[in-house]
Amino acid sequence: MKETYLGVEVSPLTYEGIVNEIENRMTRHEQSTIIAVNPEKVIVANRDPQVKTLINESTFQIPDGVGVLLASKLKGGKITSRVTGVDMMGRLLDFAALKGHSVYFYGAKEEVVTKAIAEIQKERPLLLIAGYTNGYEKDEAALVQRINDSGAKILFVALGSPKQELWIKRNLMNLPNVLVFQGVGGSFDVFSG
Ligand code: UDP
């Protein structure tokens, strides 16, 4: 059961819970989208119905930010710990490496995304990298084609919010074999060190 803050839904799941559910959904060939929720986004969503819909339509709204955790505690909710976007991405990378699901990285500057991939691969030598594209690519149709051709199962989109979530929403149907989409904001910058 999701918890609701000013009309914005949040999943009360842990990293393990989300990865387990994603694995089940992948078996059924169901796409999953992951969006990070923090108090700033809840406030923006409260003013902007489009942003609210964008969040609530996602499969998993992770409680990134201590404010959501505190709000849940105050109302006796089930959220017991933060689930940050960057750590969620790390867990998904571990899962992908373990299960042989290939991953695609889209976003950030060329030197940032390539460095992030090098660091990620160093930690997870078995990870299958389907490909990457920096976040300044203008030809969206060509990019979608490239991701489809890559055979990627998991896609990380790092364009900042809400740009990355809007990109995912626009292209979800055009990427039928990508089963997991996470909007990861500045996470490539974090992984690149
Ligand atoms: N970015 C991009 N293309 C754009 C705009 C931004 O690739 O058109 C990248 C930018 O290089 C940075 C990330 O998106 O790596 C934005 O991170 P930020 O921390 O601003 O996002 P937030 O987590 O605050 O949403």
UniProtKB/TrEMBL annotation:
Q: In which pathway does it act?
A: Cell wall biogenesis; teichoic acid biosynthesis
EC numbers on record: 2.4.1.187
Q: Which reaction does it catalyse?
A: UDP-N-acetyl-alpha-D-mannosamine + N-acetyl-alpha-D-glucosaminyl-di-trans,octa-cis-undecaprenyl diphosphate = N-acetyl-beta-D-mannosaminyl-(1->4)-N-acetyl-alpha-D-glucosaminyl di-trans,octa-cis-undecaprenyl diphosphate + UDP + H(+)
Keyword Glycosyltransferase, does the record have it?
A: yes
Could you say which enzyme class this protein belongs to?
Answer: transferase
| Domain of life of the source | Bacteria
Keywords of this entry: Cell wall biogenesis/degradation, Glycosyltransferase, Teichoic acid biosynthesis, Transferase
- Reply yes or no: does the keyword Phosphoprotein apply: no
Q: Which family does it belong to?
A: Belongs to the glycosyltransferase 26 family. TagA/TarA subfamily.
Described by its record, this protein's role is as follows: Catalyzes the conversion of GlcNAc-PP-undecaprenol into ManNAc-GlcNAc-PP-undecaprenol, the first committed lipid intermediate in the de novo synthesis of teichoic acid.
Protein name per its UniProtKB record:
N-acetylglucosaminyldiphosphoundecaprenol N-acetyl-beta-D-mannosaminyltransferase
Shown residues in whole-protein numbering: 1 to 193 of 238
